[in-house]
Amino acid sequence: MFANGPLYKFPFVQLAEALLAVTMSGMACHFIDLLEVLVKEKLQADPNRKKDYPLAEKAISNSKVALTNARTGLYRSVEEAWLRYEKGEISSDEELNKITISAKQCAFVSRTEVESLYPWAGMDAIIPETDLNRIWRDIHTASQHILLSPFFH
Fold first, then answer.
1. Domain harbouring 64, CATH code
2. Is position 5 within any domain?
3. Rounded to the nearest 5 degrees, what angle is found at the Cα of 7, between the Cα atoms of 138 and 108?
């Protein structure tokens, strides 16, 4: 007996691309959450840093917006295709290509936003035992997967 649901009919490549990208975006969200806490702790520890806080806050806010937009685009492209498979239909090559493009975009935004925020963590980001460093390494590792490479499609 074989399962017959949409998961088993959905194209594997697009499913894998979407899963890798959404995983990377989750890591980026976690990085941002940890960075927000760290920036506040640094401000409390050294009130002289108060002048830098609005800059850090703006950088974090901009990254959140970029990440949210990329994730929304990915979710929308997957949902459009998924609904077809739920109805027993298949997606066009154009719809599947939208998933590929939005997955690569989401992965790219996840990596580049974490990279842009990395300096705000200071020395805390380079210590291998910290969560910030682990997430940074994990995102860079995941971004090298062939399915997310801009050179392969």
1. 1.20.140.10
2. no
3. 30
Count other Cβ atoms within 10 Å, centred on residue 42.
Answer: 17
pTM of the model: 0.90
Q: Does the residue 4 lie in any domain?
A: no
Tokens of 16: 């894998």
Residues 6+ apart with CB under 8 A from 137: none
Residue 33, in any domain of the structure: yes
Query: Per the domain annotation, does 153 fall within a domain?
Result: no
Q: How confident is the prediction along the chain (153 residues), in pLDDT tens digits per residue?
A: 677 888 888 999 999 999 999 999 999 999 999 999 999 998 888 888 788 888 999 999 999 999 999 999 999 999 999 999 999 999 999 999 999 999 999 999 999 999 999 999 998 889 999 999 999 999 999 998 888 877 665
Residues 104, 109: Cα–Cα separation, whole Å:
9
**What is the span of the domain harbouring residue 67?**
11-148
Tally of residues, the chain = 153
Q: Specify the number of domains making up the chain.
A: 1
